[in-house]
Specification:
3 copies of one chain form a homotrimer. Chain A is α/β, with parallel strands linked by helices and about 350 residues long. Chain A folds into 3 domains: about 80 residues, MurE/MurF, N-terminal domain (Udp-n-acetylmuramoylalanyl-d-glutamate--2,6- Diaminopimelate Ligase, Chain: A, domain 1, 3-Layer(aba) Sandwich); about 210 residues, UDP N-Acetylglucosamine Acyltransferase, domain 1 (3 Solenoid); about 30 residues. Chain A is about 15% helix and about 30% strand. Chain A has 5 helices and 39 strands. In chain A, the strands form 5 sheets. Chain A has a 12-stranded mixed β-sheet, covered by helices on one side. A 10-stranded parallel β-sheet of chain A has the order 7-10-13-16-19-24-27-30-33-36, with no helix packed on it. A 10-stranded parallel β-sheet of chain A has the order 8-11-14-17-22-25-28-31-34-37, with no helix packed on it. Chains in contact: A-B, A-C, B-C. At the A-B interface, strand 20, strand 21, helix 4 and helix 5 of A face helix 3 and helix 5 of B.
Chain lengths: ~350, ~350, ~350
């Protein structure tokens, strides 16, 4: 593809050779001749020299760079668009495989791809252009919207509602029972988990994620929220829209997470926690109670800056201890010299 | 259903309108008219006013409450029983699907439900009223008891023994090889993991849980123990009865967990740890060695109360550091004033 | 089997009854009469007395031990070899099941075992003596080498390269999309993940592991590296050879892990971290930046010995706080006595 075409597609400005021919899109380290790449910030300027890319997407044109540049307002977004343009094939619906099991009480829209060894139970509904891969289980009365992709080995139990353009990666389980028991007579009695799950439009769920159904009511994942691999979302959790939940996070029962929240990797959220919109929780932190908008780290989390300072001193605790001991000795000496 | 019927079923006492008709069971926030709900403690009294429920289950009758009340000894348990009564259908065995693969060397009891796309290997045994969902793999010589439910995409490898009324949620793996290697000549040699797993009656295992088979002997999960999603149970671990293992816990090899132990979310248990019965480990903590009965938190865990106090001071470490510096200056000044 | 045969097989020396007949191999606690067992170090000498084993493998012959001994240079390795000898059956290829779906555009070597309900897509390649279990999905153009075992419910997406003698346990997902988005106009836009994954020879991957494909280029797991259950390996991560990644570790995007690295259970590695070869990170720790060879613990990790010392004092923080308060009072008193 001609660079000039890409420039007009991305609303960008070319600095250098306008005749450059672009044959691929790649990260700066993996790029070959003919590839277009990008740098997210000036920090990576030094890497351009070693890259074999034929063109680099930048936010501001760089002087004295021995490489053709394409200036756009958001290089990372431009990169994403080019990857899509070059590598993502349009969906060609394959219909319903004869090796799938699809209930005749299920509603299947046109232009679906229902692959072999998938299973769609009574009363389930599959929207237009949705792809159901092998070993995907869709339970009774579960609704899946349009243009969704459910990768192999996904389980969606009964009574789940999934919006449009939702992606669920392999191994994830949507609708397992919430972890609820009552203790009586020396043992735990199961509380039936009869609620459902609502997953709104444009949500993406990574691989091996567990989302539990509500005890009653619904577990909710809001529009545009993205959840990374191996995350736990417990019963009756409500996550707002456009939040980012990084890998291996655990969110305990009935917690409420606002919009535009970021939870770092391996964060733990105690049950009945409320996290306000716009909050960021640092990796590995643990939070509970009512978390007002801000940035937090640690277990239990404190404001991130305070945590950084406290953590820096943590490493010096042996030294602090020694300084206190020294002070005690000096005080004793001074008291000896100055009796009451 | 008449409230009077429910009252006699639950051995409860009605305060208010005896003629109330109950049409559903729900949490206090989700309840609609006709629903019965419950409050676990007085803390939630304030929420009753806003609930649309027609009746609330309480432990002690509340004066001046504009709502019909049903008093029982354990409201949470009563709620669980009503959910079961209203929403859980009795098992109707569907037999062995023609689309399942069941070895003719397997023993299948009467009244099972073996659904399409399930696989039962030679020598396996499936008990009465057990349900085997699609994509469930039952390995050679594995024994599954009566009234078990194995949800879609569960893998149970060879030589596993599962008791009665065991529930295993989707994506869980019972019997993967333990993580055992010997280092020699610059590389790791696999130690064959030829042991088994014993899962006793009334155990429930969440989704995406990994339980490894023993090197030799058995990994054991005791009667009535409940394990939440995404938990790791390593080879040769022994868990007692009626313990609660919350989500994303990791229990390393050969550890022994007693009865009535609670491990909070994301807890890590080092290998060869022994945790006595009745112990509680706080979320995100790490434990090792011999843990005597008690409540612990932190990594490595210390008594929970001590941890709370230490953690409160952790946030003040920068302040402590400054106080020590101030003391040092003052001491220097005092020493100047008081030479030896 | 005669003990003398085992001795010659293992290049060991017998102390005690040369005529001992060995009928099984087992851990010291599970051993029955006729079994051979081992002790890894002198620490376990005390357990031999109670063991019913007929012979114990040792590194150095123990005087006054009422048990036949077999002395070898590496008892643990000898034990592993005997487990293999006694219990691991040679692979008997079963061919391609009629109940599997294998694309006629896939290349299938001789002597494979492709079991029922497995799925092999167009352009995929399966090497000699490899075993593909039920519910295993092999995506387009994915290459699997020789003598591999893919256990039930494994998903390997398109464009993945797997070497020889690789073992992947149930529920693991190789090739889910990396977690990459660009924020613009108030929402997250997906960055297509069009890269691949390279898994080199002799790698073993536990159950319910997630390995994400690269954005561009490849995620790489080096020769002989072993990864435990429920681990997260993000996009573009590169792990060297012969590293040990214990359960529930999370490795964020583009991080580089050297050779012979050990990451303890539940460790978190931030994105773009570089860990040098030979490094050990203690369980539950969090690391970021450039980690030079050494042993580290804590979040963020500091040298392990320093962490142990700091952690010991952490528990005494309330006491430290009190000691500082006492010092402040004493200083005040001394200042009163010694006005300027």
């Amino acid at each position: 593809m001609k660079l000039t075409e890409l420039a007009s597609l991305l609303n960008g400005e070319i600095f250098g050779n306008h005749d450059t021919e672009i044959t691929g899109v790649s990260g700066i380290h993996e790029a070959k001749e003919g590839d277009i790449t990008f740098i997210a910030s000036k920090k990576y300027l030094k890497d351009i020299g070693n890259s074999r890319a034929s063109c680099v997407i930048v936010k501001e044109a760089v002087a004295d760079l021995n490489k053709t540049q394409l200036r756009v307002s958001n290089p990372h977004l431009a990169f994403a668009k080019l990857l899509e343009r070059f590598y993502i094939k349009p969906i060609k619906p394959t219909g319903i495989s004869r090796d799938a099991i699809v209930s005749d009480k299920a509603k299947i829209a046109d232009d679906v791809s229902i692959l072999p060894f998938s299973y769609i139970a009574d009363g389930a509904s599959i929207g237009k252009n949705t792809i159901i891969h092998p070993y995907v289980y869709i339970g009774e009365n579960t609704f899946v919207g349009e243009k969704c992709i459910l990768y192999p080995n996904v389980t969606v139990r009964e009574g789940v509602k999934i919006g449009d353009r939702v992606i669920i990666h392999s191994g994830s389980v949507i609708g397992s029972d919430g972890f609820g028991y009552v203790f009586e007579d020396g043992k735990y009695h199961k509380i039936p988990q009869i609620g459902g799950i609502i997953i709104e439009d444009d949500v993406e769920i990574g691989s091996n994620v567990s989302v539990d159904r509500a005890t009653t009511g619904n577990t909710i994942i809001g529009k545009g929220t993205k959840i990374d691999n191996l995350t736990q979302v417990a019963h009756n959790v409500k996550i707002g829209s456009n939040s980012i939940i990084v890998s291996q996070v655990g969110i305990a029962g009935s917690s409420e997470i606002g919009d535009y929240v970021t939870l770092g990797g391996q964060v733990g959220v105690a049950d009945h926690t409320k996290i306000e919109s716009g909050t960021m929780i640092g990796a590995k932190s643990g939070v509970m109670g009512h978390v007002t908008k801000g940035a937090y780290s640690g277990t239990f989390a404190i404001p991130h800056r305070d945590w950084l300072k406290a953590q820096a001193i943590f490493a010096k605790l042996p030294e602090l201890n020694k300084r206190i001991r020294d002070l005690e000795e000096k005080i004793n000496e001074l008291e000896r010299r100055n009796p009451e």
